[in-house]
Design goal:
Number of domains of chain A: 2
Order of helices and strands of chain C: HHHHEHHHHEHHH
Mean pLDDT of chain A: 80
Shape of chain A: globular
Number of helices of chain A: 18
Structural class of chain C: mainly alpha
Number of strands of chain C: 2
Oligomer: heterotrimer
Distance between the termini of chain A: 74 Å
CATH topology of the largest domain in chain A: ABC transporter involved in vitamin B12 uptake, BtuC
Order of helices and strands of chain A: HHHEEHHHHHHHHEHHHHEHHH
Number of domains of chain C: 1
Distance between the termini of chain C: 54 Å
Strand content of chain A: under 5%
Strand order of the largest sheet of chain A: 1-2
CATH class of chain C: Mainly Alpha
Strand order of the largest sheet of chain C: 1-2
Helix content of chain A: over 70%
Largest sheet of chain C: 2 strands, antiparallel
Shape of chain C: globular
Largest interface: A-C, 60 and 65 residues
CATH topology of chain C: ABC transporter involved in vitamin B12 uptake, BtuC
Strand content of chain C: under 5%
Largest sheet of chain A: 2 strands, antiparallel
Radius of gyration of chain C: 19 Å
Number of strands of chain A: 4
Chains: A mainly alpha, B alpha/beta, C mainly alpha
Chain lengths: 418, 370, 301
């Protein structure tokens, strides 16, 4: 028996001369073929009591698994052994662009703004709508970014504040006919209250316990919305919510969509500005120190409970604003839009894009809102590909696509000082 | 700020797909929208198949007025936001009519887009009463009757068999709760007392607690608003607790899948549903074709979905032109031979000719009760 | 409330608790070791149930005696779930083990989405009937309060909990697991085989999930590709309630959750069923921030 094993060992070592990855890929594809056999290949027809064997799929797994794992191993290898590339063409172009940008900031920003404002006029209503959804997601992302990215407080129930904002506007509009512009600050206000309410029991908790309680609050909010029919109209939701008014002018359907786009864009800008200001201020630094090490922060004299409350409040406020935007965009809200999946989606936006970085949030929202739309041609395989994409992105870019770059100062010794 | 730079680059790149290739002059675009992925997929896929199948046969026979029909199917997973985006996409693609949506909430969300543009929408499954009764959506029609009607038939029957107290359960969804709410209103008319009115969580692992509670108040019958997965679990629990009062549900449970899931425990369960159409030769043939093509029985709302596309195609053939107004007029004014019988529509968009009847599971299949 | 009624509600809650426990055990073990909320765990539970159904379907064509058929099917489905658990860990988690926790979480979420749709596409979107093979067990008298399948579930939960606790406390691998969960760097330095131990943890967790999947599906009578998600969330709540990372804690938390839901439903309202569970969770965590049996980890400064 041992001779057999040592023979195997020897042949294995010989085979290792062949490019390593080929052998590994082969083994992986065999493993996948065996693993996925019942679910992929065996199709039981329960009504007719027959079994169908989908051998085609087995071949698919074998070949696909082989190719896939080969590419996978290559990519992983490259990732681990990547030389830092500062002189390649790509980096040079990138560097030149950034330099140009840095020295012509105002001009570039003006052009970019103009382009963004003109997009809805030049594209289909569908595309504009998709962008509106993406921008609302960005607002949410900026808000959650403050809670998770700056403050380090993992919130799995962010959609609750989103819901509060949306329902505030929805109910005010339904019962009292209050328009968007007046309801907006009210939505923000109610969400802040909600944020404080959630934050109070949560102050003492850390890490994943915080996460689970925020999840609990998120779910409680949704369930209450579903069941308190007399107040929130339950699962039927509220329909016919008004779009924002433009001094009472009557707009065409397309005009309305463009107007909503512009409004959402302006709110997004405002939110980013506020977030940026806070980030670079004393408050922002307080939050960062809280995230890095709570105990050290406390010993530096930072009032930890008060800071946490503030973070939650700010995050909730932004979510509430986003909620009002959502309500006005879709004109119909019901509890299903604010379920756990939504909170998870917003979290993905923040992490995928890069925690603590606003460009990251922007890119993350686009990835999460627009790419599923792009993938529509794939129809039924949309979510499958999407799930796989999430995993792949996390493995190859665990810090997100645009991780936050800390401002660093480089000290170079002048040659003349010799 | 780097953020805007990156944002603009990405938006520009994305702008590349904002230029839409409209369909060729020869094509007629019909949209079908519903949940084709996600946990409601099994409510939407049958309609998608129905539309595709029928359009195939129509195109093979020369299409409509000599033009081929192109079906654009869009998935919205029963989510309101996606439904709105999808509706806009279908409008932009130039759809002359839309079959859908499936879930009442998605339909309500999407209808504002369609109504703005005036496109006729025919839904095979959105039964929320207010969609037609509110008057907000004049371009809407449905090939399934509305919830209040079902409740009428249910309570009438229960009253006939001498039921005096009931317990009403629902799945907290817009269809289930809507049906349950309507049931309560109807019960008042007959003087039947509602002992319990509660919602269950769909997808929960165990319903023994709620069934115990219902058994505890000892009603003469149980009404359930919801779909077959929850209903079959409830019914199983009732049987294992020896609580065997009449159980009546809506069209959401009048499916063979329900019987397939609950097996022997389904015996004696009542369900209301549009009058039996599976015996119609047209329907039998269509269903057999489905089994041959896909290897399984058609799922829920298949017949209604098939009827919806039949109505639309027929209306397109009969309409004077292909603009929205004429097609809508053809739909609302016409009479159609479909897989759910010979039907027409009233002013509000509700279907005429699809009544409801009470069925009971006898010997493993649904049988109409008189 | 009559005694019989009370007992019935109690058993109902207990059954729920056992169901949650079977899944929560896997959650808590994985979390204890790599501090990851394995969102894909619910999907392994679901895959276990699907594998079992498929295997039963295939094997039933071979005309074996029922008992042998079920045993073989259960065994094989457990093997498959273990395989899935192992593969998922190698694929999605191993590479980013040392990255920030949130990245692991997102990867888990992606994996969960992937697996759900994988089963949806490979099998079907419909709800499938699952044979209730636990109902008629010889030697057991079905009473009004307790029936055969409930009894099997309880015993299975108890057995697994005992086995796991013994395993963690007395075997070498168990010690390795505890070492890794206490202080990973130190454990590596001391020579604990990290990769292997983590893989074994995932395998064991998946086995429990698969057993859970099989038993629960036999009790309820139907399966669906989305069933893992809700089950997973509840089980996760249960695990946190009892102190995440703690095996008896997971079971205790599950029972408290199940009983709360059961009594909440019958005494108050079924509408707010989940809310009761969450409120209990919040209250307990306010009073005892690391869960009922959780150890308060003191941080050295």
């Amino acid at each position: 028996m041992s001779k057999f094993i040592s023979n195997l060992r020897r042949s294995y070592r010989l085979l290792q001369g062949v490019p390593k990855f080929l052998i590994q890929s082969l083994m992986v594809s065999l493993w996948f073929a065996i693993l996925t056999f019942p679910i992929m290949v065996i199709q039981v027809n329960y009504t007719a009591n027959t079994v169908e064997w989908q051998w085609g799929r087995l071949l698919l797994i074998l070949f696909g698994g082989f190719a896939g794992s080969f590419i996978w191993f290559l990519a992983l290898d490259r990732k681990d052994n990547k030389p830092s590339n500062t002189s390649g063409t790509y980096s040079v172009i990138k560097g030149r662009l950034l330099d140009y940008y840095a020295s012509h900031k105002k001009l570039v920003m003006a052009i970019v703004f103009a382009i963004i404002l003109l997009i809805p006029f030049a594209s289909s209503s569908y595309f504009t709508r998709v962008l509106i959804s993406a921008m609302i997601m960005m607002v949410l992302g900026v808000g959650l970014n403050i809670v998770v990215g700056f403050g380090g407080l993992l919130n799995l129930g962010y959609a609750a504040f989103y819901a509060v904002g949306a329902y505030t506007y929805g109910l005010l509009n339904y019962h009292f006919g209050i328009g968007f512009w007046i309801a907006l600050p009210i939505s923000a206000f109610t969400s802040v209250i909600a944020g404080l309410l959630v934050a109070l029991p949560v102050i003492r908790l850390r890490g994943d316990y915080l996460a689970i309680i925020t999840l609990a609050f998120g779910e409680i909010t949704r369930i209450v919305l579903e069941n308190w029919g007399e107040f929130t109209f339950g699962p039927s939701g509220i329909k016919g919510i008004d779009k924002p008014g433009l001094f009472g002018i009557d707009l065409s359907p397309r005009g309305e969509i463009i107007y909503v786009y512009i409004v959402v864009f302006l709110v997004l800008l405002l939110t980013i500005l506020i977030s940026r200001r806070m980030e670079n201020s004393r408050i922002g630094r307080t939050w960062e120190s809280l995230r890095e090490n709570e105990i050290a922060a406390r010993s530096m004299g930072i009032n930890v409970p008060r800071t946490k409350l503030l973070i939650f409040a700010v995050g909730a406020c932004i979510a509430g604003v986003a909620g009002a935007l959502f309500a006005t965009n879709i004109s119909y809200i019901n509890p299903k839009s604010f379920a756990l999946l939504e909170s998870i989606k917003i979290l993905c936006v923040v992490v995928l894009g890069g925690m603590g970085s606003i460009p990251g949030v922007i890119v993350g929202s686009i990835v999460l809102q627009v790419i599923p739309e792009w993938l529509r041609p794939l129809q039924d395989y949309r979510l499958l590909v999407f799930g796989a994409l999430l995993v792949v992105m996390m493995i190859f870019k665990p810090n997100g696509l645009f991780p936050k770059v800390r401002k660093s100062y480089v000290f170079t010794k002048e040659e003349s000082e010799q | 700020m780097r953020n805007f730079l990156s944002m603009s680059i990405i938006l520009l790149l994305l702008g590349s797909f904002s230029v839409f290739a409209a369909g060729s002059e020869e094509e007629i675009v019909i949209g079908v929208a519903g949940p084709f992925t996600g946990d409601f997929a099994n409510y939407g896929i049958p309609t998608q198949r129905a539309v595709n199948d029928y359009v195939e046969t129509v195109n093979a026979a020369g299409g409509v007025k000599g033009r081929t029909i192109r079906v654009v199917a869009e998935d919205e997973q029963c989510a309101a936001e996606q439904a709105v985006n999808v509706s806009q996409k279908l409008v932009d693609e130039g759809a002359v009519a839309v079959i859908g949506h499936i879930c009442s909430s998605a339909t309500i969300a999407a209808l504002s887009t369609y109504t703005d543009v005036g496109i006729p929408v025919v839904s095979p499954s959105s039964t929320n009463t207010s969609i037609t009764f509110s008057g907000d959506f004049p371009t809407f029609a449905r090939t399934i009757s509305y919830d209040a009607k079902q409740a009428e038939v249910q309570l009438e029957y229960l009253n006939e068999i001498g039921v005096e107290t009931i317990a009403v359960l629902h799945d907290k969804g817009d269809y289930g709760k809507g049906l349950a709410d309507n049931a309560i209103e109807e019960a008042e008319k007959y003087g039947i007392e509602v002992l319990l009115f509660e919602g269950i969580t769909p997808g929960a692992l165990d319903y023994s607690a709620i069934v115990l509670k219902v058994a505890g108040v000892n009603p003469d019958a149980v009404i359930f608003g919801g779909y077959h997965p929850e209903a079959s679990k409830l019914v199983s629990q009732m049987v294992s607790q020896n609580f065997t009062v009449p159980f009546i549900g809506g069209d959401g449970i009048k499916t063979d899948t329900f019987i397939g899931l609950a097996k022997e425990e389904a015996e004696g369960v009542y369900a209301t549903s549009p009058e039996d159409t599976s015996r119609l030769p047209m329907t039998t043939a269509v269903r057999a074709a489905h089994i041959e093509k896909y290897g399984e029985e058609p799922g829920v709302f298949f017949d209604n979905g098939y009827a919806a596309i039949q109505v639309v195609v027929e209306a397109l053939n009969n309409a004077e032109s292909l603009d929205a107004e004429s097609v809508l007029a053809a739909i609302k004014g016409g009479t159609f031979d479909t897989t759910v019988g010979t039907i027409s529509f009233d002013e509000k968009g509700d279907v005429i000719g699809v009544g409801f009847a009470v069925y009971q599971v006898v010997d493993g299949s649904y049988v109409q009760v008189d | 409330m009559s005694l019989e009624y009370f007992l019935q509600v109690f058993v109902s809650g207990f059954t729920r608790g056992s169901i949650y426990a079977l899944i929560a055990l896997g959650y808590t073990m994985v979390y204890g070791i790599i501090q990851l909320i394995n969102f894909a765990h619910g999907e392994i539970y679901m895959i276990g149930a699907f594998s079992l159904l498929i295997l039963i379907g295939v094997l039933s064509m071979l005309n074996l005696p029922v008992l042998a058929l079920i045993l073989i099917a259960v065994l094989v489905s457990i093997l498959y779930s273990a395989g899935y658990g192992f593969t998922i860990e190698r694929l999605a988690y191993r590479q980013i083990r040392n990255a920030q926790r949130l990245s692991l979480l997102i990867s888990a979420i992606g994996m969960s989405m992937f697996l759900q749709n994988y089963v949806l596409l490979a099998q079907t979107s419909s709800f499938l009937y699952f044979p209730k093979f636990l109902e008629d067990i010889p030697l057991f008298q079905n009473t009004n309060i307790l029936n055969a399948s409930q009894a099997v579930i309880f015993s299975a939960t108890a057995l697994i909990m005992i086995l796991l606790t013994v395993f963690v406390r007395y075997t070498r691998t168990g010690k390795a697991m505890r070492a890794l969960s206490q202080d990973r760097t130190m454990a590596v330095l001391v020579g604990v085989p990290t990769n292997r131990t983590i893989s074994i943890t995932f395998i064991i967790g998946s086995i429990t999930a698969a057993i859970g999947g099989g038993l629960v599906s036999a009790q309820i009578g139907q399966i669906h590709f989305y069933m893992g998600f809700i089950a997973g969330i509840k089980a996760f709540v249960a695990a946190v309630l009892g102190g995440i990372g703690n095996i008896p804690g997971a079971v205790l938390g599950s029972f408290i959750l199940g009983l709360t839901e059961s009594f909440g439903t019958t005494l108050i309202s079924s509408d707010y069923e989940d809310v009761f569970a969450f409120i209990i969770l919040i209250l307990i965590l306010i009073v005892k921030p690391s869960g009922l049996l959780g150890k308060n980890r003191s941080e050295k400064v």
